[in-house]
Design a protein that fits this description.
8 strands; alpha/beta; about 270 residues; eight-stranded parallel β-sheet; TIM Barrel; binds zinc ion; 9 helices
């Protein structure tokens, strides 16, 4: 089971990153994709991944909240990072009209620039979309034929939005949002509609601690070691075996991000 969304650069992990990664391995998590959300954090994510070869990879991009930071220098940094073997996707990029921390126009500009960059470099995309579905799909669609693949991470949209994302050929990333019976109710009903070969799982740690996790961590900090809980919940909602689902999602992540097969997932016993 592969966690495609870990914000390991977060200051919430500043004091115990090695332990967080160790706990993830011990919990059976087979790999981590570390999220880059602006130029600096993308560099930090790359160097954190480089210290954990074969287990951690990273993305390089500018999150819509940081779209106001976009410049020629940012693009040069992402371009340089994209060459490194740890960086396997452009992103996190997209649109977030829920909070509008950057203006919608700034967001559209930075998103378009990253779509163009990913197409030019032929790299997969790690996408974020909140309350911006129509604009998101219309900016993304012209680039789809030139992109090797993309995931809309932390999907929390409607059934129509899910169908549009699937129609566009996107992979769908599901977080512990789905564990919240109140806020995640609508999302829970969509779980059986995602084809098995398009589903990816993620914690989005340190955010989105699964609401029904017991015992509840005192810190309220989410960690990649809680991914098995999300796997179980999603498997239950889909009526599937959780081990089979974990393997399937690991294969999906490795296909999209073009990683080598995991030794653990090949069935060879290996202690990390
Ligand atoms: Zn996001």
């Amino acid at each position: 089971m592969f966690d495609i969304g870990v914000n390991l650069t977060s200051t919430q992990f500043a004091n115990d990153r090695d332990k967080v990664v160790k706990r993830a391995k011990d919990a059976g998590v087979t790999g981590l994709l570390l999220t880059g959300t602006n130029a600096l954090e993308s560099q930090q994510a790359q160097s954190l991944a480089a210290r954990r070869p074969g287990y951690c990879w990273s993305t390089a991009g500018v999150h819509p909240h940081h779209a106001g930071e976009w410049s020629a220098e940012t693009e040069a940094t992402l371009r340089r990072l994209a060459i490194s073997e740890q960086v396997v996707a452009i992103g996190e990029c997209g649109l977030d009209f829920y909070r509008n921390i950057a203006s919608p126009e700034q967001q559209a500009f930075a998103f378009s620039a990253q779509l163009e960059l990913a197409a030019e470099l032929s790299m997969p995309l790690f996408l974020h979309c909140r309350d911006a579905h129509e604009r998101f799909i219309s900016l993304l669609t012209p680039w789809l034929p030139s992109l090797p693949g993309a995931v809309v991470h932390c999907f929390t949209g409607t059934r129509d939005e899910l169908e549009a994302c699937l129609h566009a050929g996107l992979y769908v990333g599901i977080t512990g949002w789905v564990c919240d019976e109140r806020r995640g109710g609508a999302l829970r009903e969509l779980m059986p509609l995602i084809p098995a070969d398009r589903l990816l799982l993620e914690t989005d740690a340190p955010y989105l601690l699964p609401r029904d996790l017991r015992p509840r961590p005192t810190s309220r900090r989410n960690e990649p070691c809680f991914l098995p809980h999300i796997v179980q919940q999603v498997a239950g909602l889909r009526g599937e075996d959780s081990h089979a689902l974990a393997k399937q999602c690991d294969r999906n992540a490795r296909r999209l991000f073009r990683l080598e097969e995991s030794v653990a997932e090949q069935g060879i016993t290996q202690s990390f």
